[in-house]
Design a protein that fits this description.
heterodimer, A: about 475 residues, alpha+beta, Beta-Lactamase, Heat Shock Protein 90, five-stranded antiparallel sheet, five-stranded mixed sheet, 12 helices, disordered C terminus, B: about 325 residues, alpha/beta, D-Maltodextrin-Binding Protein, domain 2, six-stranded mixed sheet, 14 helices, about 45% helix, globular, disordered N terminus, TCS_sensor_his_kinase (chain A), His_kinase_dom (chain A), HATPase_dom (chain A), transmembrane (chain A)
Chain lengths: ~475, ~325
Amino acid sequence: MTERSIPLAIKLPVVVTVFMAVVAAFVSERVLVRLEETQARHLGDLATVYLDGLSSALASPVVREDVWETFDILDRARQTNAGLKPVLTVVANTAGRVIASSDPKAVPSWSELPSRFLHQGAATPAIEPRDQESEAVARVDLSTGGQVVGSIHAVFDTAPLLAERRSVLITLIGTNLALTSVLAGVAFLVVRRMMRPVGVLAGHLQAGADRGVEPIPASVIERALKEFKRLYASYNDMAVAVREREEWSQRMAEDERLASLGRLASGMAHEINNPLGGLFNALDTLRQHGERSDVRAKTLDLIERGLRGIRDVVRAALVTYRADEAPRLLHREDVDDLRLLVAPEIRRKDIALAWTNGAYAPLPLGASPVRQVLLNLLLNACEATRFGGEIRFSADVDEGQFVAVVDDDGPGPPDRLRSILESQANFVPRERGLGLLIVQRLLTDLGGSATVHPSPSGGTLIRVVVPLPSEVLADVA
Amino acid sequence: MAQLQTVLEVAPRSAGSPKRGLAPRGEARNLGHLYGREGRLFDKVDRRQVLAWTAAAVLGGSSQARSASSELRFGLTPVFLTSDLELLARLKAYLEKSTGFPVRLITRRTYQEITALLLSGQIDAAWICGFPYVVYRPQLALVAVPVWQGKPLYRSYLITGRDRPANSIDDLRGDVHAFSDPDSNSGWLVTATALARRNQAPDTFFSQSIYTWGHRNVIRAVASGLAQSGSVDGYVYEVMRETDADLVGQTRVVARSDLLGFPPVACAASSAREPRTAALQSALVGMRDTDQGRAVLSMLRLDAFSIEPPSLFDGIAQEVAVVRGAAG
């Protein structure tokens, strides 16, 4: 979880830093160990050369216990010794008494050999580093003719060696720190630069969900790396395709609306044409037998019913399609009128329509949008239902909501139906939607919703729920 | 200015007026007997010397002829600094030019070695110390004496560490004391005499005596702390005060002796009259008259070489007597 929440632009530099720190620690440790070994060898060589050089010159003066000559040799050796200097050299006899030292004030002749020197005999030069005191103490025995006659002791100042080691350590730490931070910084910049196109892409995809897909501008593509240019191009192809499809879908929706209007108009024409034939017949009857009062009354009644039927159809169509009409209450008759509008389709396909309309008072809902929603759903159901099938319609008020159910026994709800009707987003259908888009938009405006269920008969059951405004609920109840 | 650091102690001739030059061989032998009475050592050396002369006499003029034809051998004691090759080269060049002889400069570690070479006739002349000159005065003749600060005289200094509050030799009791050479006047005899006058001897007065075989080494020993005090040639000390101020600065002078005869150039009394000796004498005396000679003198910080009477060294002879008396 934590791992996922750290951005790559931070994670990679951290990995680089940790890696560099491990490498630096390892390398530094090796360098220092080798340096210490080299210094110890160097110091050992130096001490050996120094003490061996002195021992050949000192054997004779030590046998004679010649203080001056011993001092003279030590003093000259000190003067000529460059580089790593012995800070103190002492020559002692076998009894552990100093014959002479290079610093007689600190270690006078004939005093006891100070305890800081090595008291263990050493036929070959022995050296003991003492880093705490920044010095190394060396000893070699002086012998002539196989007989030990005394010993030479030297103290070397190892402070320069320790300082060198310290300075190497500081240099290592400094260099590694600088290198690590530079590499971490470079890693940060590189990763951020590499991730920038991904961010651009992510931003466009996110914006696409909200405001529609926008192609990435050419200026951004031009600056991008080769791989991302390809990615951007693919994205833009996709964006163009999506746009085209969107436009096409809108056109399709419009076509669909026109198509359903056409279907309705043809149904209406049929609905008007039927009584018209009767009306003309009635007119002929009146012309020929108008003087007969019984025929006249019967014929006029027939004409009146025919005209009333035409009036009802026209009124229903007017109510349904006059969008500029002022909103008015939804009467239960408005719902019943829909039977007239779908009657031509019902008859055409010989469908049995089971119609249930509750006894509710006029509802404070826009009659026009509700009727259009229900009409479209009913027409849709007619479309889905086979010849001789059945459609069940019911409408009523239930718990402060207007609830209508359209239940057909067609082949069952296609997936797209649910995705269109139940979608909250501004969804664009891929296929021909039979006015479903209009349904969805109108319902959104009304604050209502539609849910799609499989019907018990194997067809599709669509349940439309439109909540009633709360202030009128009391009256309705 | 290390070139200054060579003092040449040359055996002088024995008796007679300096103006008259070098004493004859017979006279020298007589003087040797005369001075030989002063101590056993003298008798011994004298006997050895007599043997050498006897041998020379037996071999006749041949050895003399050979030495006459060969180079001038000039001995230098390592009182000062023996390693200044430039000074040695200039001195050699000057002497060769002035005397007309090829010159060989001979240096040894101790006074004793140079004195023995001189007494045995293996070198023609040597710059020695007043002490061996006095001791072997019968066998030696003065050739010339250096003049320093206008006089053929110098002093011996008692020195100690810079920060030590000592005002006389009495404050130095129990020290580790650095002497230059047991045959040096300023580096041993003067201090031994002062102690003898107090009925003391170096071995008992000092906790330990160190011989450093050079006046410069005495200063080094005292400066380093190896010795708490030392006996040193005042001329060397003063010259080094100029040339080696750091080293000399670590010491201070406790006491200065009376003026004594400057270490002379001497030759064997037997060869005092030889042309080579005379040539050497005139070369030394005439040193301040030529540029080349003045350059050598300037390196040595000396004014000139002059011919002085043996009585110049009577002061040292008195010291010898005091020490001998105390020892006896």
